[in-house]
Every structure is written in structure tokens, then in C-alpha cells.
Design goal:
single chain; alpha+beta; Aminopeptidase; Nonspecific Lipid-transfer Protein, Chain A; 3 domains; seven-stranded mixed sheet; transferase; Acetyltransferase_Eis; Putative acetyltransferase
């Protein structure tokens, strides 16, 4: 008999007539330097969908090499040319449209790991990115087909979670994704005088040395591995970070080096490297003189503060900005004047979709021992049902349970919610109490909220330093 609580593959939504989809790996030609024509057409179409320039052959080939290294899977939706010829617009499409090899929908997925804070370390996660739909072919089921196909593959592959970042916040909740981490834009005053400058309460141990970005490959790998393993909410990084942080990619021109990029590393007292920072000066037209931090990855808090102290000591610089800071940054509390640290913006980053509730919850961090019943609703039918969650010594055991309306010999508090809401709750970015106040816990009783909150809610928000 089939296990009704095991993850089920969702029904794959059909495409409108005249469209077809194809899934294929990113690939290079036999020379190993040139991407295949199919991969090149996909990459150009996808980048145009995000309003990027039409890439040159060299730029496309460099992108293709990264796609291949990350073993990314591409799914494209194409217009059937014979069907299009029968439409009133078919002749115009043939005359002025893009080559038939260029898709009208794009979708990429690949695997990294997600740190959910559990005792066994990061768990495998299916990452989704580069989702575009040609505006001329909207309302033809393209996005729904691409997403249901991808989630079906993820379930078949035994993945516990899927994750993505979004350009528009109102699109992916209907597919069960919940906003799971946020990040801050920050501005740090480095100026002197009137008590408004940068001064740490304590001097971090060790020494920060200027570094050649092109020599940072090993430092980047080891520093991020340590950061990833200690940071709940962290997602494993794609190869683009390696290329950008070593200056081999200029984000404004992927065929060129970023000759403005500077770097530094923190050396601990024992001689080991605790982290790195990459940055560039914003130009002499900025007022005040400003450094923009691209990436700051530290294996520990002392290295984090030491790297900031180095930035503050740069000559003729009065301000530093960073677009990817944690919501709880120890720097703010380490400053003699906390007002020199300003949050100028907040935004969501990582969105999580639970695919296997047992695997996902058993890989999560918990605050206290206890037990509760979970009633999970999943409109796509992937992982809904009734479960009992028992937490002991910081680790959870999740087992199928009889539905709440059937007799049970154990009286447990009950948490009722959608899989989208569970995605938001999963990494600890939002509390049970807040979700209950927002009306997102359905029929969960108020007295149950307090008991469950003590088990689930985590003391600090998660942080993801990786965009994809």
C-alpha cells in the first residue's frame, strides 16, 4: 500500500496549444570553450528577459562555462513554428521575431545545500532561478508548466526543499513558496568628529592585510564553507561568486576583469585566515567619499568586526555601503556610536518550498524540547497531511499521524497552516505568534500557539548572503 504521507509528484500543468517545452543540461561544444547553440540561445533570451544587454559571443561563452560547472538544468518553452504559421500573427513573427531557437520561456534549476540549523548540517536543496516569460506569450500556462515540471523532478529526486529568489513578491506563494529570509541595505558613517565616526568598543584580535583579488580562490572557498556551516539560512554558492570576487568577472561587462575591485583578508593570531572582504570606491564624484562593499564573508564574529575595522581605516573615505547585510549584525552593537550604522532598506531574499516535511523538519533547528501535531495543507498535493513532531535535545523526529478529526490517545497542541506559511516559518525569520496574529495559522488555538512557539521560534533571524 502506498504511503499517503510520502511526498507526491504534482500534476504537471499543460502548455497552451502551439507551445512545447524541452529540458536539457547546459553544455559546451567539443572544444570546451564554446557553448552549444541551444545553450547560447537560452542564455541570451534569459538575460534579455531581465533587461540585460544582448550578450556577445564571448560573454555568452563565459556564462555557459559557469552554467556547466554548476551542473545547471535548463528548461525552455518554444513556439511551434508550424502552429504559429496558422495564426494571424504567424507571418509577422517569422519576419520580425527572434530565431525559433530562442525560447519564449526560460527556467533553471540546480542543486546546492541549505543550512536550516539542524544537528546534521546543511541539507540538499533544489535551487530555481532565471525564470522568464516572453510578454507576448503570457497567459498561456508557461510559468505554471515550468514550475510544476521542476517541482515534480525535485520530488522524484528525493529533495526535501526547493528555494528561489524573486523579482516580484506576489508570484510564487501559489506554488507553496514562503518568504524565509530577509536582508538589509546598510550605510555606515566612517567620518571623523562630533562623535559621529566609526569606533569599535574593542579592538579585534589578529590583523587585516590587503589582498590581490586574483589570489583569493582558496580563501573564498574555505571562508564561505565556514560561514555556510555556522549560518542558519545560508545557501551554497554558484560559481559566479568565485568569478566576481576574484575580479575575473566585471558585473558590468562579463568579458572583462573588474579592475576597480579591491580585497582584504583577516588573519587570526594563530595565522589562519578568518574571512575576506571585496569592495570598490564609488568614485570621486560621490559625496561623501564612499566605499561599496561587494562581499564580506567571515568564519566568526571577530573576523567580521576586524574586516569592518579595516574598511573604516581606509584613507579619504567617509562612508561605506553594503546591500547584503544581516538583520542582526554584531557591528551595530560593537560600535561606540550605534547611530553611525543606518539601515536604509529591507527586502526579502530567500523563498523556501517544503517538498518533504519529514526530511525538512528533521534538518531544522529547534528552541526547546516538546511535541505538537502538525496539520499541513498543500494545494499542490506534494507534502500535506497530519504529522507528529517531537523534539528532544535539539533534534526533531517527525512521524505521520492520524487526522485531527480522528481519535488520538495523546493530547498535543496542534499547528494548522499552509505549506507556504511553513516555508516562511522554516528558517526562523518570522515567529509563530506573528503568523497567528496575521491570520495565517488557520484554526490554530491561541493556547496552542504559546506552547508551539516555545518549541519552534528561534532566537535570531536567519541570514542568506547568496543571491541566485
Amino acid at each position: 500500500m502506498a504511503d499517503l504521507h510520502a511526498p507526491q509528484q504534482p500534476e504537471i500543468a499543460p502548455l497552451a496549444p502551439g507551445l512545447r517545452s524541452e529540458t536539457f543540461p547546459a553544455a559546451m561544444d567539443a572544444d570546451g570553450k564554446t557553448v552549444t547553440a541551444q545553450t547560447a540561445a537560452f542564455a541570451r533570451t534569459a538575460e534579455q528577459g531581465f533587461y540585460e544587454p544582448w550578450f556577445s559571443d564571448e560573454q555568452v561563452n563565459r556564462i555557459g562555462q559557469i552554467l556547466v560547472k554548476d551542473e545547471q538544468t535548463l528548461t525552455a518553452v518554444y513556439v511551434d513554428q508550424q502552429s504559429a504559421a496558422d495564426e494571424s500573427w504567424g507571418n509577422a513573427l517569422e519576419q520580425v521575431g527572434f530565431d525559433p531557437a530562442h525560447p519564449v520561456g526560460t527556467f533553471v534549476d540546480y542543486d546546492k545545500t541549505l543550512n536550516a540549523g539542524g544537528p546534521d548540517g546543511p541539507l540538499p536543496a533544489r535551487l530555481i532561478t532565471v525564470v522568464t516569460v516572453n510578454p507576448s506569450f503570457r497567459r498561456r500556462g508557461i510559468l505554471k508548466h515550468l514550475m510544476t515540471s521542476a517541482l515534480s523532478r525535485a520530488v522524484e529526486d528525493g529533495m526535501a526543499v526547493a528555494a528561489l529568489t524573486v523579482s516580484e513578491g506576489g508570484i510564487y506563494g501559489r506554488f507553496g513558496f514562503g518568504c524565509a529570509t530577509r536582508e538589509a541595505n546598510i550605510q555606515v558613517d566612517l567620518g571623523e568628529g562630533h562623535g559621529q565616526g566609526f569606533a569599535l568598543r574593542n579592538t579585534p584580535a589578529g590583523r587585516v592585510i590587503s589582498a590581490d583579488p586574483a589570489k583569493l580562490d582558496e580563501v573564498i572557498n574555505t571562508s564561505f564553507e565556514s560561514f555556510h556551516n555556522r549560518t542558519r539560512g545560508s545557501i551554497g554558492r554558484q560559481q559566479t561568486y568565485q568569478m566576481i570576487s576574484t575580479a575575473r568577472w566585471n558585473p558590468e561587462d562579463l568579458s572583462a576583469w573588474n579592475r576597480k575591485l579591491r580585497a582584504a583578508v583577516h588573519v587570526r593570531e594563530d595565522g589562519s585566515i578568518g574571512g575576506y572582504v571585496t569592495f570598490q570606491h564609488e568614485g570621486w564624484d560621490t559625496d561623501p567619499s564612499t566605499i561599496r562593499i561587494h562581499d564580506l564573508i567571515a568564519a566568526d564574529d571577530q573576523s567580521h568586526l576586524a574586516l569592518w575595522d579595516y574598511i573604516a581605516g581606509l584613507d579619504i573615505v567617509r562612508r561605506a555601503t553594503m546591500r547584503t547585510a544581516a538583520l542582526t549584525d554584531p557591528l551595530q552593537s560593537a560600535l561606540a556610536n550605534p547611530r553611525s550604522y543606518k539601515v536604509t532598506g529591507l527586502r526579502d531574499l530567500l523563498w523556501v518550498r517544503i517538498l518533504d516535511v519529514v526530511k525538512a523538519l528533521e534538518a531544522r533547528a529547534w528552541s526547546a524540547d516538546g511535541a505538537f501535531r502538525l496539520e499541513l495543507e498543500d494545494a499542490m498535493g506534494i507534502t500535506g497531511g497530519s504529522f507528529t513532531v517531537r523534539v528532544h535535545d535539539g533534534a526533531a523526529t517527525v512521524t505521520p499521524a492520524a487526522p485531527a478529526d480522528e481519535e488520538s490517545t495523546e493530547d498535543l497542541p496542534t499547528l494548522q497552516l499552509s505549506v507556504e506559511t511553513l516555508g516562511s516559518l522554516y528558517l526562523g525569520d518570522v515567529s509563530v505568534r506573528t503568523l497567528h496574529a496575521a491570520g495565517r495559522l488557520q484554526d490554530t488555538a491561541a493556547e496552542d500557539v504559546e506552547q508551539i512557539s516555545r518549541i519552534i521560534d528561534l532566537p535570531t533571524p536567519p541570514f542568506c548572503a547568496t543571491h541566485f
